[in-house]
Design goal:
about 180 residues, three-stranded antiparallel sheet, alpha/beta
């Protein structure tokens, strides 16, 4: 499938500002950072979680543990999407039991990725609560899930796709709305 970029909705500064705002909201909502852990959903949620962790360390002088979660085997569309699924690593250098787990992802769309992440976290222990931080919420939920922290709400049509491009994977920092190219 080929996509054509229609519009840039966030640049490097917009992404940074959104993550700073999310970090401050996490501190405010949880009345500090005791027992808070950040868990990035692979793939682009991982660097976003690390960046939020860095912002919290700089602004609050508190080192929030950051982990990464692979949800491949928890997906409800596994057989539809992958002939041979590539399972990445889940790396949580902490116990989730009794913690405030903040799941971090790039885009919230149908809610199915978050549902899979919730299942994966619950299999690892019983957190005090689970919160969700996303860079972009584009709507079109199929499951009743909402984010606690949103960088930007972007209403989209079903034909449109949000591409989050990060330096770590793409060599560029931007969020764009794309549309499938017409043949």
């Amino acid at each position: 499938m080929q996509f054509i970029d229609k519009a840039e909705i966030m640049d490097v500064d917009g992404i940074r500002r959104a993550l700073v705002r999310i970090a401050h909201e996490i501190v405010e909502k949880n009345k500090g950072l005791d027992d808070v852990v950040l868990v990035g959903i692979r793939r682009r949620g991982v660097p976003l979680a690390r960046r939020i962790g860095d912002i919290l360390k700089d602004s609050e002088n508190f080192d929030v543990p950051v982990g990464e979660l692979d949800i491949t085997l928890y997906r409800d569309d596994l057989s539809l999407k992958f002939e041979q699924p590539h399972v990445g690593r889940t790396m949580l250098p902490f116990d989730v039991e009794g913690k405030v787990v903040v799941l971090v992802d790039d885009v919230l769309f149908t809610g199915r990725t978050v549902r899979a992440a919730l299942d994966a976290i619950i299999d690892l222990g019983r957190p005090a609560c689970i919160q969700l931080a996303v860079l972009v919420d584009r709507g079109h939920r199929e499951i009743p899930i909402r984010a606690d922290y949103v960088g930007k709400n972007v209403p989209t049509s079903r034909r449109e796709v949000i591409h989050v491009r990060l330096e770590e994977y793409d060599g560029i920092e931007q969020v764009v709305i794309s549309e499938e190219a017409q043949e």
